[in-house]
User: What shape does this take?
Amino acid sequence: MGKQCPQGFYGVQMNMQSRKASRRIAAAGLCTWLVVLIGLFGALPAQTQPAPRYEVDPNWPQLPLPDRWLTGGLGGMCIDGRDHVFVLNRQNVVPEDLDASHLAPPVIEFDPEGQVVRSWGDPNRLGSRLHDCHVDANQHVWIVAAGTGVVQKYSSDGDELLLQLGDTGVFDSSDGSREGHPLNSDRAQFFLPSSLAVDAATGDIYVADGELTGGNQRIAVIDRSGQFLRQWALHRTESERAIVPLPHCLRISDDGLVYVCDREADRIQVFDRMGNFVRNIDVPWQPATPPEGRRSGTRGTAVVLAFSPDPEQRLLFVVNQNSVRVDILNRRTGELLSSFGGGPGRYRGQFTLPHGIGVDSAGNVYVAEQEGRRIQKFKPVIP
Assistant: This one.
C-alpha cells in the first residue's frame, strides 16, 4: 500500500499535458492517499473512524518454498525496518514426511514480496522450542528459545552469535534443572522465557520469563552488555491471587510503555519502564458453542500482540487463541474495534493455533501458526 501511491502519482504527472492539470491530479491523488491512511490508523475522531477490515493476500508468501522445504510449527515471527519478515521454524515435523521433502532451516527471512531471501540457524545452538524474535535498529536478530532458557543476539545474516543471555540448558531454578523450583533470581538466567523486546531509547532488553506453569513468572530487564537491572511480576489484586501470572508476550510502544500478555487472565497488562503498573486491557470473548461438557477457554485471548505503524500506534493487534481470530483494539481505550480471520481451520484465512503476529510499515498484518505450520499475510481493506 505504501509503495503504490508514489508510483501512480508520478505516472500521472508524466502523462499530463499541462502543468495546471498535473497539479490538480497530483493534489487529488495526495488527498485520496491521506484519506486512506487517516481512515486506517488515526487522526479522525474515534466516533468517525471506520472499523479496520483486513483480507488475506493469497499471493504471499511466494510458493513453493525453496528446495522442497518442510516447516514444522512456527513458534514466532518478527519484522525489521525494511519490512522483511522473519519466522522461527521449530522443525517438529512428521519424520515420514521427510521422505518427500527437506527440513526447512530454523530461521527463514522473506522480503516484502514474499520471496525467501535468507535462511539460517544451527538447531543445536539456537535451542529448543523457538518462541519469539526481535530485530533491533542495527539489524541484529534476537531470538528466544523457551525450552533451552536462553536469549540470543545474532548478526543480521545469522553467521555470528553476538551475545547470549543465560547458559544453555541451565534453568533459573533451585538445582539448575527443569525439575527444580523456580527462583526468579536477580540475574540474567531464565526459566521458560517466552518473549523479548529491545528498548530503542536505552538498548535495554526486556524479557518475559514465564511461558508455562512451573517456570519463572516475571519481566526481567537486562542492559545491553548482559547485566541484570531489575524485574517485576504481573499485577494481581487480592481477589486475583489464584490466577497464575504467566507473561506470554512482551512489546514496548514508542511512548515507552511495556505491554505484556497476561495469558491466564485473558488480558494485556501495561507497565512503565520501571515496572509500575498502569492499567489492564481486557480481551473478552464468547464461545461459539456452549462450553458444557467439554474443555473451553483454556488457550487464552491475549497470546501475542503487535502495534499499528502510525505515529500514535493507535491500534493493537492481538492473537486470540480462544476465538482463533485476530482482535483489533484501540490502544488508548482498549475498545474492541473489529476482528479478522476465519476461525479454526486450515483453509485460506483460517488459523490453526496462531502463535506469532507482526505489522509492517504499510499496515499489513502477518500471522504465524504453530499447528498450521504456515504464515499468512492480511492486507488492509480500503473503506
